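Worked example 4.2. Below are the chains of a multi-component assembly; read each line carefully before continuing.
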Amino acid sequence: MTAFVVAAIAMLAALIPLGVVLCRARVMSAVVAYEAISSVAVLVLMLLAEAFGRPGEFELATVLAALLLSSGLVFARFLERWR
Amino acid sequence: MARAVAVDVLLGLAVVVVLACSAGVLLMRDAYQKLHYVTPVSMVAPVLAGLAVLVQSGWTAASGQAWLVVAIMLITSPFLAHATVRAIWIREQGGAERATADPAGNGERR
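Applying the procedure described above to all two chains together yields the following structure tokens:
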């Protein structure tokens, strides 16, 4: 188990408090937690691609990083109009 | 040996940043305060992880793709944070129509 795998697992532990906020907080706080979770997921995918020596899997992290902006903008745009 | 230590230190710093920011998101009171703790996750930790990949692999296609991910996050995160803060503010003001009609928020409609 390389340092990259250990770091990815440790970062996955950070999803627990973020998941608590996502499930229990008010809606805009949940959106903030969702954005943090997406950022951590990008990091985990990047670290696992390096750990397993599969450069092709960096594309997953790339696509998720690009979708992070668009999905966050969708949430922000709709939640500012709909209560 | 020195390369492995550098990778461990960089990854350790990235993990510390992510864990501390997740605790911050959990403990802060409102969405404005919580959003401050998303920025290090999307700006600082990716740079540290990208540096770790660069130190581990050198200038390869893998490190190039890792830095592409880092660049995307560095470019897009400020826009997303701004859009989120704007959405929070508009909701607090009572909706998009009222915020457009009364940008100063003093209660007067045009």
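Take a moment to check your reading of the output against the notes. The two ends of chain A are 47 Å apart (CA to CA). Chain A touches chain B through 48 residues (CB under 8 Å).
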